[in-house]
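RECORD TYPE: inverse folding
INPUT: structure tokens
STRUCTURE:
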């Protein structure tokens, strides 16, 4: 309809600290969101139901995470197994949300010496693997959703990309953080 509207008040006014920066739609129609900005008030994921306009948030505990303004996750995508995968931005864990059981799991990664994942986005590849777009990491990360195994691929020199998308030819296009392409 090319019409803009917004929801405010009620349950939304108490959730302003959530600051959802990445969202994806679940198979049941709800929308999952992970806070990717200010985490001074904690780390959360949120669920929004467009059917009854309800919104809930759930706290996430990450061992050894110091908090602050640097969020632990930077993006999310619905995987081929209907789990939501969250890319590590300031943590050494991939976040996995299972909507059927309403559980959030951390999958530890080792990004070859980086203190944290340092990725800015996550892209679902046609073969079902996940590609992590580097932002501070000197590697492109890959995660196999069938085996839940993480690996690094190509070492790159320009390591500050903002987002990625799969092109029709199967290549992945990265948008550079400084407004150039890669």
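DESIGNED SEQUENCE:
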């Amino acid at each position: 309809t090319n019409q803009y509207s917004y929801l405010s008040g009620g349950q939304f006014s108490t959730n302003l600290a959530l600051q959802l920066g990445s969202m994806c739609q679940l198979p049941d129609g709800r929308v999952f969101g992970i806070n990717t900005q200010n985490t001074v008030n904690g780390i959360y994921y949120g669920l929004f139901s467009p059917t009854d306009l309800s919104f809930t948030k759930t706290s996430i505990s990450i061992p050894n995470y110091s908090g602050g303004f640097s969020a632990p996750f930077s993006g999310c995508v619905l995987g081929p197994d209907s789990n939501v995968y969250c890319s590590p931005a300031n943590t050494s864990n991939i976040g996995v949300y299972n909507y059927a059981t309403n559980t959030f799991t951390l999958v530890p990664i080792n990004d070859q010496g980086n203190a944290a994942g340092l990725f800015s986005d996550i892209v679902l590849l046609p073969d079902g693997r996940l590609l992590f777009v580097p932002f501070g990491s000197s590697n492109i990360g890959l995660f196999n959703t069938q085996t839940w195994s993480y690996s690094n691929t190509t070492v790159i020199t320009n390591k500050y990309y903002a987002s990625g998308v799969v092109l029709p030819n199967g290549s992945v296009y990265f948008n550079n953080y400084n407004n150039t392409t890669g």
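NOTES: DSSP finds no helices and 14 strands in the chain.
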